What we know:
- By secondary structure, this protein is of the alpha/beta class.
- Helices cover 55% and strands 11% of the residues.
- Strands 1-2-3-4 form a four-stranded parallel β-sheet, sandwiched between helices.
Amino acid sequence: MVFFSESLGIPSLRVLAQKLLELLFDYEIEKEPLLFHVFSNAGVMLYRYVLELLLTHRRFCHLRVVGTIFDSGPGDSNLVGALRALAAILEHRPAVLRLLLLVAFALVAVLFHILLAPLTALFHTHFYDRLQDSASRWPELYLYSRADEVVLARDVERMVEARQAHHVLVCSVDFVSSAHVSHLRDYPTYYSSLCVNFMRSCVQC
């Protein structure tokens, strides 16, 4: 799983991030303005490597990124939230199997955090910390909810404050009652208008 490989400092998503950016050249749209729409922590983990390539790779540093939308993320380390996300994925599995997998996941996650986190921190920066201090300066929109039980609202709000401290133009909207990555489903008109208006403002900048 990508969550474990990232915790171990294995950049398993870097190759995928590069392939994603290379698609822009394959479809000959590399000169068009780019706006990223990133969902949950898995999306943020991938976006972290996209950012690194955009800022350091000779082929990609000329791409014109105009903004990023974050939906239900990013969240800092949150074992309870991760367990809830896994439980949702395993919802249709037999109850005994679901329980065994959740217990195994929790044990492995705790062991990783206690035993391996101090070691991997020597050579690998957590995606949340990396994003806080990113050198990117295009506008960012954070769509989140205090009702989200997977990614905590306070983590998103802390990220907003960190990005503003770096003089990034940041907007954020708390949907209050919608669950994790359910804002579009619960508020389709409002969500769509926020995204479209943000996109228009970014392109016009």
